[in-house]
UniProtKB/TrEMBL annotation:
This is Petal formation-expressed. The chain crosses the membrane at residues 21-47, 53-72, 204-223, 229-249. It holds the Pfam family Chloroplast_duf. InterPro entries: Chloroplast_duf. It comes from the Eukaryota. PANTHER family: F-BOX PROTEIN WITH A DOMAIN PROTEIN (PTHR33358:SF12). The lineage of its organism: Eukaryota, Viridiplantae, Streptophyta, Embryophyta, Tracheophyta. Keywords: Membrane, Transmembrane, Transmembrane helix.
Length: 331
């Protein structure tokens, strides 16, 4: 339990650190870029001589520095890193509370300790603390749900057990299968589609920012050159201004954080699907979670009452593939 509490503090501190990276790098790069654009503009309106050469060199060097910093910032996506650690902090707090509850109501067994350890390691794998070697790929070929839980294992019976099928019935099983179908098609599917769109936007802006500052560096280097005319000044100033706008939209708008948010939301529904399917695939009902409690847990996770949950399953079964209502009312 102490190890989990320590994880909470670690993830919280790293989250604050990486959120600061985002704001500080954004401010620094935009300041450098706009300063370089200003110098290029002044150089273009000044008479040729040593002062103009100094302005051109300074502007070019600043653009090159901004390009390098942008490449690094776009590679690590600080806003996405911070969102990963926010999720890890929340999940570690949840696990810590679960362990406290388990200790309060019962004597933990070796199986309980092993299960808690696996959950901690799964969170560590899903939201790694180090950057080098273990950082999650920020521009994957496709968006996949975040998985922060270990694989289900057949073990001892869970929860409160009663007679009469441990709270399960054929009708409830059918309802749960319909809920899985709704979550997979509407909720998880929608967040994955949104994640794909956000990822594409992020990829375009991540390439556009360094490209524009690189073009601006070339333009500022040729400001005042007779062979280039006014085009060098236009590139040196306009490309720098556009680069600042793109950088602000990408990192000020925290597009990387939005991608991670969609991934984690899809992961939430994937976890619910696996929990339901794991119980349904267990042929011995006495080894399942208690049906009544499990149904209540599913309803709470979806922000619905029990009657609303049953109505959702009934409507999905009646309308089939044309059913478009989301399972969750929370997000």
């Amino acid at each position: 339990m102490d190890a989990v509490a320590d994880r909470v503090e670690m993830h919280k501190n790293i989250c604050d650190q990486r959120a600061n990276w985002n704001s500080l790098l954004l401010t620094s790069i935009n300041t450098i870029t706009l300063s370089a654009a200003t110098m290029a503009g002044i150089a273009a309106t000044s008479a040729l001589g040593s002062p103009v050469l100094a302005l051109k060199i300074s502007s070019t060097l600043m653009y090159l520095a901004a390009t390098g910093m942008l490449i690094i910032m776009n590679k690590i996506q600080p806003s996405q890193l911070a969102e990963e650690q926010r999720n890890a902090t929340r999940l570690c707090k949840l696990l810590h509370n679960q362990i406290q509850t388990m200790i309060a109501i019962d004597n933990p067994t070796a199986h309980d300790v092993e299960e808690a350890l696996e959950k901690v390691l799964a969170i560590d794998k899903a939201f790694p603390l180090p950057l080098l070697g273990k950082m999650i790929e920020k521009f994957p070929s496709s968006v996949e749900p975040t998985v922060w839980w270990p694989k289900h294992k057949r073990g001892q019976a869970k929860g409160i057990q009663r007679s009469n099928g441990n709270g399960w019935s054929e009708k409830m099983e059918e309802e749960m299968r319909e809920i899985v179908s709704v979550l997979n098609k509407n909720d998880k599917g929608d967040y994955l589609r949104l994640g794909e769109k956000a990822l594409k936007i992020n990829k375009v802006m991540a390439m556009a920012g360094p490209f524009l500052t690189g073009i601006a560096a070339v333009g500022s280097a040729f400001v005042g050159s007779p062979s280039c005319g006014s085009w060098a000044a236009v590139l040196g100033v306009a490309a720098g201004a556009f680069a600042s706008i793109v950088n602000t939209l990408e990192h000020g708008g925290q597009v990387g954080m939005v991608v991670e948010l969609y991934r984690s939301n899809a992961g939430f529904f994937k976890q619910m699907e696996e929990d339901i399917e794991f119980n349904l695939n267990e042929t011995d009902v006495d080894r399942r979670e208690n049906g009544e409690l499990f149904e209540m847990k599913v309803a709470l996770n979806l922000g619905r009452s029990l009657s609303e949950l049953r109505d959702l399953a009934t409507s999905s079964k009646r309308e089939g593939k044309e059913f478009e209502e989301f399972g969750s009312k929370l997000f």
